[in-house]
């Protein structure tokens, strides 16, 4: 096989309290990417969408990810990537991770799956470095593994898949762009001990809630006392959306990744749709343009089509 096409899904990083260490894979939206082995050295990129992303491999997130893989793959000279993105860059649902993770999974299939999932995360993180300057794995890992993932450590990589109940996710994306690099820049570099204690209580509570399918514990643990108070100022109507979603029955939620998208978890599909209606109502009143997605957890990650 010389060419392969995959669907690479959106992801929600942080899951409110787990900054840089927790992430969840969404069933939709997905990018469509093709990877082809090429006799030409290096990585050639063809963009089949309107996002005007760089076509120079070193400056492109999927290019940087495949260059990292090529460096360890002595029997292949080059790849051609054809990319049709549906996940808007700067939306907060793992657009760069979908590009970077998607191409390394596709290339690995062309190479008879010689690399482990952890290797693929390691390659794909080079794409995140291009996107925001930091090799974080909380979008890449769930995109490759599917489901909910915990990144206990990045150097060295230690990724744990967390079993979770069948949650329903509502995402609202106010039509503004927040660059992850900017949203990281504004964060405080020091944390008060009392806040740290609350935060790690919530992270442990959320993970336990997932494993035990304890919806009340999940709901109580979806609290962020460190990142959200700073980043929420970048998102129009953030607290109104949060309040209306809870009234509509959501278990809880918050900023998706570095924003501006906001996500909410619900127990069932009907509640997730009620949450969507509540979100729409808030943004219609505020005159904010938006897109919404109502979806479920994607348990398998990047999919070959
Ligand atoms: N953990 C990263 C951040 C995710 O919040 O900056 C970016 O999508």
Question: Can you give a write-up of this model?
Answer:
By secondary structure, the chain is of the alpha+beta class. It folds into two domains: 3-163, Ribosomal Protein S5, domain 2 (2-Layer Sandwich); 168-296, Alpha-Beta Plaits, CATH 3.30.70.890. The chain contains ten helices and eleven strands. Strands 1, 2, 3, 4, 5, 6 and 11 form a seven-stranded mixed sheet that branches. A four-stranded antiparallel sheet has the order 8-9-7-10. β3 (42-47), α1 (61-71) and β4 form a beta-alpha-beta unit. α1 (61-71) runs parallel beside α2. The longest helix is centred in the middle third of the chain and has 20 residues, at 193-212. The mean pLDDT is 97. L-homoserine (HSE) is lined by residues 13-14, 19-20, 136, 138-139, 180, 183-184, 257-258.
